[in-house]
Write a structure and sequence with these properties.
0% of the residues lie in helices and 50% in strands. The strands form two sheets. Strands 2, 4, 5, 6, 9, 10 and 11 form a seven-stranded mixed β-sheet that branches. A four-stranded antiparallel β-sheet has the order 1-3-8-7, with no helix packed on it. By secondary structure, the protein is mostly beta strands.
């Protein structure tokens, strides 16, 4: 059974940082592009960032460009999202996604 498991969420103050992880199992991780999405309360799920199977050509939503960095380690079947200079509007449940599969999400709360 394919599993994508996110971790690393939490509560931080504005300007803080968090690093999210997405661990994949039963999945040929190294052959697929991977994505991060997020969903804030009362809003639709939105795209955050994507990375190709090789780790090149990352793509970011305008709202996170310059603050977030997506990366992956194919040897560990894990994708990451380094989030710096967090803002209250980044508060959401963050999901990893690939090949039609979704993780369960991890909550990120940015508040003073």
């Amino acid at each position: 059974e394919v599993q994508l498991v996110e971790s690393g969420g939490g509560s931080v103050q504005p300007g803080g940082s968090l690093r999210l992880s997405c661990a994949a199992s039963a999945f040929t991780f190294s052959t697929y592009a991977m994505n991060w999405f997020r969903q804030a309360p009362g809003k639709e799920r939105e795209f955050v960032a994507a990375i190709s199977w090789s780790g090149g050509t990352p793509v970011y939503a305008e709202s996170v460009k310059g603050r977030f960095t997506i990366s992956r380690d194919n040897a560990k079947n894990t994708m990451y999202l380094q989030m710096n200079n967090l803002k209250p509007e980044d508060t959401a449940v963050y999901y990893c996604n690939s090949a039609g599969y979704w993780g369960q999400g991890t909550q990120v709360t940015v508040s003073s």
